[in-house]
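Predict structure. Input: FemAB family PEP-CTERM system-associated protein, 356 residues.
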Amino acid sequence: MMIDHAADLAVVTLDVGDASQAQAADAFVASHAAGMPFHRTAWLRAITAATGHRAVLLAAVAPSGDIKGLLPLHHVKSRLFGNALVSTGFAVDGGLLVTDDRALAPLAAAAIQLARDKGAISVELRGGPAPGGEWSSAEGEYVGFVRPIAVDDEAELLAIPRKHRAELRKALANPSLSVEVGRTDRLLRDHYHVYATSVRNLGTPVFPAKLFKSVLQHFGDDADLLVVWQDDRPVSAVLSLYHQGRAMPYWGGGVADARQLRSNELMYYRLMGHGRARGMTHFDFGRSKAGSGQAAWKKSFGFEPVPRVYHDWAADGAGRDVNPHSAKYRRRVDLWKRLPLPVANLLGPMISRGLG
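Output follows.
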């Protein structure tokens, strides 16, 4: 379907369920240095399958048929948090991806038109170049952490600052701790238990279990699980993505005594080695709130923070507030931490689905 055009570039919607159109979009993402897993049609399909949020993939196409830009979006609907077009749902990066700067304005304009057509909802772009014009940008609220993976385990250990390295050595010397990597249903269940416990303790509603299963299914070998065991008890776990040379731990956490066991340190160290064995060259530690304890922890692991830039548009100038660190939600966070885990796991997916 034709939406808009500028100069000789036309903006069209691609059907992520059509094999040939999806293949063309994914080839564009794979060839782009700034392409992320959140631009891929696998991510769009996985989020839609797990949450029902409809995917819209805008493409700027030249007369030759070549794609010059993409903007993947999810229409996230929530009675509690409001509606928005998000690039992309449940992602920490994404946004406009272009090889021709002329594609920026028409893709951004098409997104705004879609938002107006859906009732003047807001648009959120989590990364990518600035659209300009009516859009606002925020830099530094979140920071990202990426560094090269060392050549071997010993070099990786030495790349970690001394104080944190000493903590990791304690985990490495603990005979009760072991690590398993895979994609089995058992690991998926153990990962969800650990992750749900971790986010409840942080005061955040857990995502639906089928979200993690859907991402694993749609990404195939480009996603897996790593679980750290204390004897036969899972204590730390992470679901990771692999994309264009990057190992990307994405959804991870630990149980209450993971800190004492240093099992999270062991988890990420072993994941670096696993990524190296898979041929990955960089470790992408994801984003954290600037100034947070999580950001400080990642820095102590030998990663330097780099500001993330997000862009948004809203008809009335006020978009959604889905930041769990905002003052508006602090009381809710404190209450959530007190919920029994079964209750949190029952209510959390219904709430978090709208965070997108």
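The radius of gyration is 20 Å.
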